[in-house]
Amino acid sequence: MTSVASSTRERIVPLAWVMWGMAATFYGYAFFQRVLPSVMVDQLMAEFALGGALLGNLSAFYFYAYAGLQLPVGMLIDRFGPRMVLTVAAILCAGGSVLFSQAESIELAYLGRFLIGAGAAFTWVGALTLASRWFPARRFALLTGLTIVFGMVGAISGQGPAAALLGEVSWRDVLLGAGGVGLGFAALIILVVRDHPPMSDAGRQRAPAGKGIMAGLRVVASNPQSWIIAFCTGLISVPLLAFGALWGVPYLMQVYGVGRPEAAFSVSVLLVGMAIGGPVTGWISDRIGRRRRPLVVGIVLMLTTLLAMFFIPGLPLDAFRVLLFVNGLSSGCFVVCYASVRETNRSETAGTALGLVNMFTIGSGAAFQPIVGLLLDLGWDGRMQGGARFYSPETYQNAFLVLPVCAGVALLLSFFFRETWCKPID
Predict the structure, then answer these.
(1) Alpha helices for 135-170 (secondary structure H)
(2) Largest CB tally within 10 Å, which of 182, 321, 417, 418?
(3) Burial of 346 by CB count in 10 Å (0-12 exposed, 13-18 middle, 19+ buried)?
(4) Would you say 424 and 137 are in contact if contact means Cβ atoms under 8 Å apart?
(5) The pTM is what?
(6) 204 or 369, which is more confident
């Protein structure tokens, strides 16, 4: 980036906040869609006659599309810019929501959920790409954390408020309304968002078409740090995506005997913690000029809280909520991974590098939501309640053992991170 472009960025900071903020808000909408099935578990089970594994699979279709598209997403954003790509993404989210809301068969529900995930797949990398183009590099980790805040606000909206709304309208009405919001985002993005600041050279840094796009992928894939960071980030995300985004609400309803709205608001504590932990960790990392140290500390704390949450007998609900908050706070350390992968790859392949990491992040949800559901089915004793399967506390505890295991493996991988000292290689 030239000195002229850098000075231009400094002069147009208010406009930069608008550009990034629009994309970050769309990311929040995508996260709302991500967690929405968690407050509809029993209703969807009864509507489509599903067990835990199939319900996990229905929710995970979002993640199948999201994770599978991450490498193309990064390359498309590098090539065509975030404005056009995010507009198409919003239309896909809207169409998928409407289709899911009208589905009379599980196959149509799968397709609707898949389309929602396909549109949402562009939101995170799009927001971070705009942040990297409109802001100085030294703010990237902080902006990554602030983007998480938008995501967590969306996720919280998809928990307690959505659960309360389901007491007034049907799950189909909620999804239909979400489709209308998606169309609104499409209109706003095409009207407001611009790919890069005026007078900057960001537009000339796009990846070339054809072989150039694949060359960028080869460069990112040939960097061992890209893979270490990607696997670590995916494992850190498992508790949020498997517990927070799906199985946490039915777990609290069963184990603590609370209603759906209270269970959903309780799970939202995890999201509040992450909303705070993401930007705080990013700010600390930028401030001290280190990436690996904040990451290791965060994973250790996350692992400790997971063990306490699920393996301390007779844990009171208030104590569980405190631990859930601390777990979310500590898991915000994953923002450091995105800063690290950006700093270990060149700027012209930034979208591709971020897409690789995000593929593993979301892929963990695609894998572990149904894995937890399968483990629950394996421990199911045949009891039913309100047309849905009834899982005992012991069955939940055995299924959730995979969460601290994932955190432990992430901790091991974190020691192989190369310290970048918060400086991009170019």
Answers:
(1) 140-157, 160-165
(2) 182
(3) middle
(4) yes
(5) 0.73
(6) 369
Tokens representing residue 221 in the block: 């894939």
Residue 422 lies inside a defined structural domain of this protein:
no
- Angle between the N-to-C axes of helices 140-157 and 123-134, in degrees from 0 to 180, rounded to the nearest 10: 150
Report CA torsion sign: 83, 86, 92, 96. negative
CB-based burial of residue 209 (10 Å sphere; 0-12 exposed, 13-18 middle, 19+ buried)? exposed
**Which position has the higher pLDDT, 64 or 404?**
404
pLDDT single digits (tens) 67-88: 788 778 877 887 888 999 999 9
Angstrom distance (rounded) from CA 170 to CA 231: 38
How many independent structural domains does the chain possess?
A: 1
CA-derived radius of gyration, the chain: 21
Q: pLDDT value at position 216?
A: 72
Could you say which DSSP state residue 245 is in?
Answer: I
Region 231-247: mean pLDDT is: 89
DSSP assignment string, 301-353? HHHHHHHHHHHSTT--HHHHHHHHHHHHHHHGGGHHHHHHHHHTS-GGGHHHH
Q: H or E segment at 22?
A: helix 13-35
CATH number at residue 174: 1.20.1250.20
CA nearest neighbour of 79 among 335, 348, 321? 348
Q: Is residue 423 part of a domain?
A: no
Q: Is residue 300 included in any domain, yes or no?
A: yes
Residue whose C-alpha is closest to residue 129's, from 54, 29, 206: 206
Per-residue b or e along 151-182, where b marks 16 or more CB atoms closer than 10 Å to that residue's CB: bbbbbbbbbbbbbebbeeeebeebbbebbebb
Whole-angstrom distance, CA of residue 75 vs CA of residue 401: 36
